[in-house]
Amino acid sequence: MNPKEIGKIYDKITHLWVREDFNRTNGIDQHRRALGFVKNKGKALDVGCGCTGRFIELLISEGFTPEGVDVSKEMIRLAGLRHPQVIFHHQDICEWHIGERYDFITAWDSIWHIPLDRQKFVLEKLISSLNAGGVLIFSFGGTEEQGDHTDNFMGPEIYYSTLGTNGFLKLLIGLDCICRHLEYDQHPELHTYLIVQKTS
Q: Which 8-state DSSP code applies to residue 130?
């Protein structure tokens, strides 16, 4: 299942994020922790931004100029309605040429949909798009080994992949990043997030 196919699936399930009982605090504390490591508050990028706008709003309140990117056309449409002053890109992160440099990038519950053989490439792309001292926060499946699978937790069958905890750490250390925080934040579930900072 490629990202564009996943985008079309998300086009059909946006109701899961616009319902009144959606937990808009999900991931906020983790992002506040990551923002504590940021040295400069310039441009920020929300990868797989979806339509809730909660991270966009947090970044604006912290003094950033945020942008969003998502493979779902409908998510981008809804995001634009919520924040018409923000630039949103309807793009597949695997294919998109990122022309800017950012002080903060978030990829919360998004890049785990990337094909396993593209995970390394996308992480390299995101790190290369950070300014020196820039911070990346992203969530992933914290398994011991790399792997991929599909499930229908949200209704339709959707693809997930991970390099595994040590796989991500090894990759990011090799990209001259410092691991600032690693947490299994929904233990005993394997939902895991990393905060890393680019050193050069």
A: E
Query: Tell me, what amino acid is at 193?
Result: Y
Pairing state between β 130-141 and 177-183? unpaired
Q: Range of 166's domain?
A: 3-198
| Tokens matching residue 177 | 């990043």
Residue partners of 103: CB distance under 8 A and separation at least 6: 38, 39, 40, 41, 42, 43, 44, 64, 130, 131, 133, 134, 135
Beta carbons within 10 angstroms of residue 31's beta carbon: 21
Number of domains in the chain: 1
* Dihedral angle sign, alpha carbons of residues 111, 112, 117, 119: positive
Summarised one tens digit per residue, pLDDT across range 94-144 is 999 999 999 999 999 999 999 999 999 999 999 999 999 999 999 999 999
Domain holding 14: CATH number? 3.40.50.150
Whether this model's pTM surpasses 0.85: yes
**The pair of three-digit structure tokens given for residue 46, joined into one six-digit string:** 């929300």
